[in-house]
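Hi all, a correction to my earlier message: I attached the wrong file for Annexin. Here's the right sequence:
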Amino acid sequence: MGRSNDEIRLIKDSFSDKKYDNSLTKCMKTELKEDKFKKAVLMVLDERRMDDVDQYGRRLPLDFHLVDQDVDDLRRAVKSEKGGESLMIGIVVQRSDEHLREVLKTYERAYRTNFARDALKKSGNLVGELLAHILNGVINKPVRDALLLNHALTASKRDGLRKDLLISRLVRYHWDHAHMEAIKRAYRERYRVDLQEAVREGTSGEQSKIPLSLLLSVADVLLNLLLLPRSCPPHASSPAPQLDPSSSSDEEQQQQQQLEQAESEVEVSESESTVTIPSSSSP
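and the right structure:
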């Protein structure tokens, strides 16, 4: 969720499972129950998301008429006594990050309230979590992902999903080096501890339970921490890149403060709208 069409295309092309003819779309159609969440997933796989840039990497201009229309539609959706979820999904899933940032600003200026919080109140279910996950990424993706890593690290060790969540998140974040570095910085700023050390402490005594192949995949974060003797110093990470300048405006900072105030809401959506597929059909 919240990925570009190019990223979705690469994920689909990399999916491999003979049971589904190597089709991620076919897998999702088969494994997910018929509900609004399934419709959202299939919408993403259809690669219908609005682009932020053109084929030459130039930023596309915002359609402010569409922004205003989306704000009106989202307000109507959260205020409706019945329904409204499909409309919210259609807008949040298919609009670009830049467009959604402008929608969030305009919505707040018009109604003096935060749409992400309104959406969670309207849909306190998987749909609400899905919307919150995407919108929190629009506001500040490194902070969102740092929160999610911390949730996985601090969850009860008796929670069977804890280890899976941590591995899944680290593996995904690891492939984008710049984003991984931004997450490390956000984690350090928020929790006053290096992510490497947090992973070391959070997985103490559990290394033998984590598949070696996955540890090797997360080389930047785990290989130097979990496979080496504990007496070895943490791997020194390179300076994280600065966040997008667009996030440094007063309004963006205000939205970030609201995100931090709503940390509990973010952590409610710690599932990241992921779906547990039976192990027999896992790729």
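Sorry for the mix-up. The chain is about 60% helix and 0% strand.
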